[in-house]
Amino acid sequence: MKVHSGKQAVSLLSGHILVGEANVICPNCRSDYTHVHHVGTLVGTDQREAVAAYEGTDPSGATPQRRSAVEIVFSCENCPEYFALVIQQSKGNNLVEVHQNVHTRPE
Asked: How far apart are CA 10 and CA 4, in angstroms?
């Protein structure tokens, strides 16, 4: 799995401007024809500070970080890979990453 952070992540999230709004683009092929596949919680390692699942989500995997993260998995109309927007809380900040070539939702 490839992880995009910082300016790379922002460029994938700001994508192309569509009807005056920024949109998400695929990190694999740069297409802006993407769809939300599922939303889940990546469970953190600290039993006291990690949540099993954020409200409205199911556990979808794990993160090596202490606290849990929200994972929004996207599919792309132009390529077979899935990618995820991950929001990871750390020391009062919410860090944004884009994870390329991620798993799909467990059935």
From this structure: 9
pTM: 0.83
What is the tally of structural domains in the chain? 1
- Is residue 107 a part of any domain in this protein? no
pLDDT classification of 77: cutoffs 50, 70, 90: very high
Flag whether 105 is in a domain.
Answer: no
Helix (DSSP H) and strand (DSSP E) numbers for the chain: 1, 8
Half-sphere exposure of 97 (CA within 13 A, CB side): 19
Mean pLDDT of 54-81: 92
Domain that includes residue 80, residue range = 2-100
In a domain, 106, yes or no: no
Q: Give the dihedral of Cα atoms 61, 87, 84, 56; nearest 10 deg.
A: 60
